[in-house]
Design brief:
Ulvan_degrading_GH, alpha/beta, eight-stranded parallel barrel, six-stranded antiparallel sheet, Galactose-bd-like_sf
């Protein structure tokens, strides 16, 4: 901070300012000494059968691994540990929670917790009158009854009905239980957490009809049958939009905001997963201090060597989508929130089959979508005395102590911390503000239960991709534009400067882009008129909206709407675009060349106001080449964990281009630099030397026992060696001797390419440690360690635990002893690793030197 650089500030003033900054950031009088740059993790407390001793032991492991904090979620229990279970919010539970917070402070770990157990909100103090309600239409009248849904995966003391999210007093009554629980708790978590909306079938509340009448200015009950209309009746469409609008408002006013207000009043910040809701995600995310998205399943990146679990069902779960993630980051950007989090790695692959090399691309995708506060999904509290594999949660990647990658877990965490520090210490720099026309969605038939649209992160094709808004957003993403989304409510906060730049108070934009839309609120039209009158540059994609929303007095309001729309369209700074690229360029919007090269990026501004790019190669279209950055600026390259370096530059048409080398799977930061580069151009590594010969293979550590050593003339999976090796999980060392020609030694820029590694390789060359290859591409710099004759290469490879679990599930399946759903596979069927085929393991190669 600059306060430390100024010599004229008295020391007490400096201390006071720092304290104010800490309190302002965390909003918590009991703020912990924590790092948000480090990744955090979900921490499942099964049955809350926890002890202080084991809590401390596991927190110490988290700290040594490079985590920044934990998120406590109590869930269902473990068979045989019923007497050890601690009821949620009881005296003993609060005692172990406070012990966790105190130990977290000692170790530099933050602690968050769910405002409940399992998900969604609900529990023993939710009466039938407060429980979620579903409405169906019978003979034109509402038939209302409780949905009967209970808290999913509830912990002891957290069982009960799901809360009605639209109830006028429901949230207040629900939180009263926490009021009394925390009244005597001196050590509190940093944050309260609200999981994704999963109140299935909830679409009504006791005073819904009255609220509708007050807000929409007509009687819904007299029009109720129109909600079931499938003929395209214009009035029915307007009624459906009004119905969804009312649900959205009640959800925001009675659920999201009261929970956030309560949390802040009690000294907590809030993390909120708004997705899955029937409301406008942008408004709901913005209600929280830390909006949180979710990366569920595996993206289909075209990265050579990147595996996707063949059992994962896209039809069942969908795939992660950066556009859905951008709803959380857009809300944060517009409202000036520093942190945007993500539940990360949910069902990335089947149990015991996830590698670090699979995790990194998913995190890179989150970074490019604006996420900067990673929460792994997750780790499970497990007694230290418990045999392998310990207690496991049914749906998460195991990031805990029993994971096959636990030894190398700090490598991933160092990478995430390095990236998140830059991403958190910079501000958004997006040119385009894209309006989210949610009313067009509400005009369509809902594809979710209860006749309402649930805006989930799983099947985004159900609500996002099929809309013109979704198609436009995909186009902008793929073609290199930096943009955020904006809701009807959020438009109200914008002002316009003398240059026509839109300013939310926290972020600025050169253009407001309105996707092709049919339905438009008159309140939003008024905001467009206000902004356009101030000089804002507004582009309508292809056409103007046609119909004003709201069924009450529609004909008269439509007439006024059409007149206002005509006047708006005549302004010089308003365009109906037939050439989107040209119109955006005319407004000063940058179309980044990075995307057209096949790269994915996010552009931000650092504390000096200089451009900062995080660039990830999540495909196979680019390896190296000349790229124009921004409007042709000079940039430096920051490579995670390697440091900063100049880049070779050339000038073309008055603009600079830089030579970027970024292999599929790699990522880097590019930072604007005012300095030119006079470094010599390093030619491509277009030569290679295959390392061949006899490999000595020795198994060094693992279970169930060590297979016999072997000699290999060609690299292959060690599961092909013998029956015992097919069940082995652990480490094996490969060694080989080789010579190199003089050409390889020139320049010391040779890279060791290990080819296909299953799964992590620690490498020494001539006794010098080259590092550990844990992500794609499995390459390490080797030139400094090479010599002409008698090179000795040693590679220690660690595989997954899946092959061992094939044997364990044949011999001792007793580890699967959990209540509720117990443990299932990625298809939600009973878990049985004994049926699996052996997974390739070891160094598969080919191994070669690139120079």
């Amino acid at each position: 901070m600059s306060v430390f650089k100024e010599k004229h500030y008295p020391i007490m003033r400096r201390i006071f300012l720092v304290l104010l900054l800490i309190l302002a950031q965390f909003g918590n009088g009991n703020a912990q000494n924590l790092s948000t740059a480090k990744p955090w993790t979900y921490w499942w407390w099964m049955g809350s059968a926890v002890t202080k001793t084991d809590i401390t032991a596991q927190l110490e492991y988290f700290s040594k691994s490079g985590l920044g904090g934990v998120h406590i979620i109590p869930i269902y229990g473990v068979k045989g540990y019923e007497k050890a279970a601690i009821p949620f919010l009881g005296v003993q539970w609060l005692e172990v929670m406070q012990h966790t917070v105190r130990e977290g402070k000692r170790l530099g770990l933050g602690v968050d917790m769910t405002t409940g157990t399992g998900w969604p909100f609900g529990g023993p103090n939710v009466t039938q009158a407060m429980a979620a309600q579903g409405m169906t239409i019978v003979d034109g009248k509402p038939a209302v009854k409780p949905t009967g849904q209970k808290v999913k995966r509830a912990a002891p003391g957290g069982e009960g009905f799901v809360l009605d999210p639209f109830n006028a007093n429901g949230m207040k009554q629900y939180l009263s239980r926490f009021d009394s629980a925390f009244a005597k708790s001196s050590d509190k978590p940093r944050s309260m957490y609200n999981d994704s909306y999963e109140a299935y079938g909830a679409n009504w509340t006791d005073d819904f009809a009255n609220q509708f009448q007050s807000r929409r200015k007509y009687d819904l009950l007299s029009k109720l049958a129109l909600l079931n209309d499938s003929t395209g009746n214009p009035e029915a469409t307007l009624v459906k939009i009004d119905y969804h609008q009312t649900l959205a408002e009640l959800l925001l006013e009675r659920y999201a905001k009261p929970w956030t207000d309560w949390s802040r009043a009690h000294g907590f910040v809030t993390r909120y997963q708004a997705h899955g809701s029937p409301g406008n995600l942008l408004d709901l995310y913005e209600a929280a201090d830390i909006p949180e998205t979710e990366s569920f399943g595996t993206s289909r990146f075209n990265i050579p060597g990147l595996r996707v679990d063949p059992d994962y069902s896209i039809d069942q779960f969908g795939t992660p989508n950066p556009l859905a993630m951008k709803f959380a980051s857009s809300a944060a950007n517009l409202s000036g929130k520093k942190l945007v989090s993500s539940e990360t790695g949910t069902w990335l692959a089947n149990h015991f089959k996830v590698s670090l090399s699979q995790i990194k691309p998913q995190i890179d995708e989150l970074f490019t979508a604006g996420i900067n506060h990673i929460f792994y999904h997750g780790t499970t509290y497990s007694p230290e005395k418990e045999d392998f594999p310990g207690w496991l949660f049914y749906a998460s990647t195991n990031f805990g102590k029993s994971s096959h990658f636990s030894e190398h877990f700090p490598l991933l965490n160092q990478y995430v911390e390095w990236c998140q520090k830059l991403l958190q210490d910079s501000k958004p720099d997006n040119d385009v503000l894209v309006y989210f026309p949610i009313h067009d969605l509400w005009a369509t038939k809902a594809k979710s239960g209860g006749g309402v649209h649930l805006l989930e992160v799983h099947h985004v094709e159900r609500w996002l991709l099929d809309l013109p808004f979704g198609k436009l957003s995909e186009r902008l993403w793929k073609e290199g534009y930096a943009f955020d989304f904006v809701s009807d409510l959020q438009l109200k906060k914008f002002t316009v400067d003398a240059n026509g730049v839109l300013n939310s108070g926290n972020a600025t934009y050169r253009t407001l882009l309105i996707p092709s839309a049919t339905y438009f609120p008159e309140e939003t039209m008024a905001e467009l008129q206000r902004l356009a009158g101030g000089g804002a540059k507004i582009i309508f994609e292809g056409k103007l909206p046609a119909t004003v929303t709201g069924n009450a007095d529609h004909a008269q309001r439509q007439k006024v709407f059409s007149e206002n729309l005509t006047q708006l369209s005549k302004l010089k700074n308003v365009r109906i675009s037939g050439d989107l690229h040209g119109d955006l360029a005319a407004n000063g919007v940058i179309r980044e060349e990075l995307s057209r090269k096949g790269l994915t990026f996010i552009r931000k501004r650092d504390s000096r106001g200089m451009a900062l790019y995080f660039v990830a190669n999540l495909g196979n279209a680019f390896k190296e080449g000349w790229v124009k950055i921004g409007n042709g600026e000079l940039v430096r390259r920051d490579t995670p964990l390697r440091g900063q370096s100049l880049m070779h530059v050339r000038e073309a048409d008055g603009k600079y281009e830089v030579f970027l080398r970024l292999e599929p799977g790699e990522s880097c930061f590019l930072q604007t630099s005012g300095d030119g580069s006079d470094i010599p151009f390093v030619k491509s590594r277009d030569q290679q030397l295959d390392i061949k010969g006899n490999w000595q293979l020795t198994f060094t550590d693992g279970r169930p026992y060590l297979p016999a050593p072997a000699k290999l003339s060609q690299l292959k999976s060690w599961t092909e060696l013998s029956d015992s090796a097919t069940y082995f999980s652990g480490k094996a060392k490969y060694s080989i001797k080789f010579d190199v020609p003089a050409a390889v030694l020139k320049g010391e820029n040779a890279v060791l390419d290990l080819g296909d590694v299953r799964e992590i390789a620690s490498v020494k060359l001539n006794g010098k440690d080259l590092g550990t290859a844990w992500r794609i591409p499995f390459q390490l710099y080797a030139g400094h360690a090479l010599k002409a004759k008698g090179n000795v290469l040693e590679i220690e490879v660690t595989n997954l635990s899946a092959n061992y679990m094939r044997l364990r599930d044949q011999q001792q399946p007793d580890w699967k002893k959990f209540y509720d759903i117990n443990i299932v596979d990625i298809t939600y069927k009973k878990f049985d690793a004994a049926r699996w085929q052996p997974m390739p393991s070891g160094l598969l190669g080919p191994v070669k030197l690139l120079y």
